[in-house]
Amino acid sequence: MSAILNRDEFLKLSPEEQATTVAKRVPTFATLDKAKQQEYLAALRRDLVTPGAVGGPRVELSASTFLKEGITRRAPDILATAASAAVPGSGVVPFLSRLGAAEVGQDFGDVATGQKITPGYGAATQLVGEAATKPFATLASVPAFRAFSRRTATAIADYIKRLVPAFRDYSSDAKGLYGIVHQDGARELSSTFERGLRAIKSQIPDTAIVQVEKTIEVAGRAEIVTEPRNARLLIDELPNLRKAGGKPYYAALHALQRDLPTGVAPELDTLRADYRHGIGFITFGRKGKFLHGETYDAAKAMGEALDKHGQELYGRGMDDLAALIRGPGREPIKAVTRSPWVNRLEGALLGGAAGAPLGIPHAVGGAAGGVALGEGLPRTTYRNVPLTTAGRAAQRLAPVTLSEAARELLREGNVPERLPGIPTRRGESTPVTLEPSPRAGERRLP
After folding, report:
1. 445/72 Cα distance (integer angstroms)
2. In 3D, which of 270, 301, 266, 272 has the Cα closest to residue 287?
3. Which own/partner contact pairs does 183-191 have at CB distance under 8 Å and 24+ positions apart?
4. What would you measure as the largest C-alpha separation in the chain, in angstroms?
5. Dist. CA 375–CA 200, nearest whole Å
6. What one-character-per-residue DSSP string does 91-151 give?
7. Under 8 Å CB-to-CB from 352, ≥6 apart: which residues?
8. Distance between first and last Cα of the chain
9. pLDDT tens digits for the chain (446 residues)?
10. Are 101 and 86 in contact (CB under 8 A)?
């Protein structure tokens, strides 16, 4: 038999009157000893449910009370999450600081809401989140690196196209860069430079001399010597040199770019700068070997290529382009090659742990996980990948989010209530299961 008990009226009663009221509605209440009766009443006053422990009071709450009680119970978890989220950065010191902040927030929340203090609970759950984030962060470095490489390739292509008009028809991506460096970029650059020289040849002094390099054989050895040539006559020879092909044509262009006097005409100065910048980028790209088909390897470009061949850019006044290739990070990206056996081991551990709750033997789950992840996980991951604003926010919040998820799961399983701890002013630690009631402000008792 059930009866409706108004919540507000019940809370106005004295403890003795509350006990009498409950005894009239719950037959099993009178069979309990004094301590159990007090626990029952405390659970009732706190809008808690303890099925079976004291006869099973079922407390139905209004939506507002349900929300209030839920927030009160989770206040320590919320404070632990907020405190750890306020500690940015990676490394040992930020890691330990997040553990300490989570513990302080958890304990402060327990005290503020009158719940039992469980020393080490906040730090332990934060550690779970931090540990769970590590493998995901390692795997996430692969798509993050690819996204960064695509963004950087686009930025480099846009920059070099603005700097060298001969490249303006190439696409602004890794495919366009590959075309500039390894396909017909040099031909487009040379043709543009040659047409410009022929157009302004009349403005070049008749006496202008350039030194053209050529290779000769001396005593069985190849040596590079220079041959003085009249600039205007050399420009007239360019079409024939181009048709003949080979090094003489490019040697003539290099000599004209390098040795023609400055200040003769603004158009000539612009032509020379465009050719110097274009040939510098092409040389850097070919020596650096960071373009593979339609893929730009940011790690190789900002690391080995820039370290060994960066002078091709710096020596031609292309410092801004070099800075763009270097990227915004303080450290260059580093590729890390993982052994396939490490992937298989991690897969075996994960497969065994995931299969245990389902009753799958560790050997079977571990073998399945080892095979699946050993072949499915990438062998090359990356460190120091610059992230977008959203990526940095996700990286910062990931361990906090996973830690809060761990706290929520443990809270739903009433784990904190079963842990040893230090009582606070409220003194009880009763498992909670709350349900909102369609009739606000009333309590239904069995």
Report:
1. 23
2. 301
3. 185/278, 185/282, 186/279, 186/282, 189/164, 189/274, 189/275, 189/278, 189/279, 189/282, 190/242, 190/249, 190/250, 190/253, 190/275, 191/166
4. 121
5. 62
6. SHHHHHHHHHHHHHHHHHHHHHHTPPB-TTHHHHHHHHHHHHHHHHHHHHHHHHHHHHHHH
7. 362, 363, 365, 366, 369
8. 6
9. 344 555 566 777 788 888 888 887 776 777 777 888 887 787 777 653 333 333 444 444 455 655 666 677 778 888 888 888 888 777 788 888 888 888 888 888 888 877 778 888 888 888 877 777 777 777 788 899 999 999 999 999 999 999 999 999 999 999 999 999 999 999 999 999 999 999 999 999 999 999 998 877 777 787 888 889 999 999 999 999 988 888 899 999 999 999 998 888 889 899 999 999 999 999 999 999 999 878 999 999 999 999 999 999 999 999 999 999 998 877 888 888 877 666 667 666 666 655 655 666 766 666 666 666 566 667 788 888 888 888 877 777 788 888 888 887 877 777 777 777 777 654 444 433 333 444 444 444 44
10. yes
Q: Are 298 and 333 in contact (CB under 8 A)?
A: yes
Q: For strand 209-218 and strand 60-61, is the pairing parallel, antiparallel, or unpaired? A: unpaired
Q: Where are the alpha helices (DSSP H) in 164-184?
A: 174-182
For position 234, what pLDDT does the model report? Answer: 93
Token pair belonging to 2: 């059930």
Angle ∠(44,405,403) on CA atoms, nearest 5 = 115
Q: What is residue 209's DSSP assignment?
A: E
Sketch the domain layout of the chain as residue ranges. 1-119+389-446, 339-377
Counting Cβ atoms within 10 Å, is residue 399 exposed (0-12), middle (13-18) or buried (19+)?
buried
The 3-state DSSP class for residue 418 equals helix
DSSP string computed for 242-303: HHH-SHHHHHHHHHHHHHSPTTS-HHHHHHHHHHHHHHHHHHHHHHHT-EETTEE-HHHIII
Provide the 3-class DSSP secondary structure of residue 33.
Answer: coil
- Count how many residues are written for the chain: 446
Task: Read off the tokens for 21.
Answer: 């009221």
Both tokens of residue 137? 């962060």
